[in-house]
Amino acid sequence: MLADHIGIPQLRDLASRSEQVNSPIRVTDMPRLAGLLHPDIEPADKELDVRLEFLGGMQGFPEIKGHVTGSLDIYCQRCLAALNWPVDIDFRLVVIASEADFDEVSEPFDTVVASEHGIQLTEVIEDELIGSLPLAPMHMDLASCENSIGVKFTNIDSESSEPDSEAKTNRPFGDLAGLLKAGDSADSSE
Description:
alpha+beta; two-stranded antiparallel ribbon; 5 helices
């Protein structure tokens, strides 16, 4: 049922019967999400648990209330190793037939516009999952990153703030004034 296109009339029918769907969904059935996963972890056997409720909605539009749990193996943005990210999201969507119906939907709801073929629940779930992922996920502790790639990270804040007397200061524009004066004197001698 998750992979089928469901139109507005079918959604209203499901809502009138207060239907619920409890089904696992394979990550490989969501190609955009699968493309964000770490390639070292095989997503073929990875599944997420999905619970959907179909509601009539107070505004006359069918609503989908969803809950998705599981975990995804994504990239740690610090060490680029696999990071097992727990998934536990809730969403509630109003399904409308056209963009003209946007004005009739109350503010607190996210809205999905159904195409002429309806909506595909797998795509809706995939959109919610992608939207729930952090922009820069990282392991919670630095040691996990160090163990993943075998490199010791140094924390700049923990190092001594006293300048090293032997360190050479890099000043890329330090001689700019001298170069400009030399350039001016070369131009005036011509």
